[in-house]
Amino acid sequence: QELGGQAARQRSAFVCHCVLDIRATGQLQRTICRMGLFAHTGVRWITLGWSSFLAENVLLSHNREYLIKEFGESTYHNTYNTLSTLATGSILYGYVGHGRGQGPKMPFVLGASPAGRVAAVSLQALGFIGFSQSFP
Known about the structure:
60% of the residues lie in helices and 10% in strands. The protein is mainly alpha-helical and 136 residues long.
């Protein structure tokens, strides 16, 4: 049976449709019928941007010497810069045009519980420690 009511659908907004199957043993198991994550336009634009950005960086960085040899350094940098701008532009468009306050929500907030706050502060401290190591 489907999770009852509007409140249940809002709590499970990250996964559009959740179905509870009651097995012969009486155990409840959550089965995800379909992911509604990519149904939102903003998520598709942002995913496209991040995927393009990662692919462009991997492909152009790993083949740098060959591409510069074949097409010249100026063309390589212009292509790299153009592709990076398009990819980050897609991320920005997805977020600003379709993202802020819209789309799927994570079913939890990390800082909501005391354990979540400890985890958040610990991860932030670890990030600051890592960042401090980048200076001479």
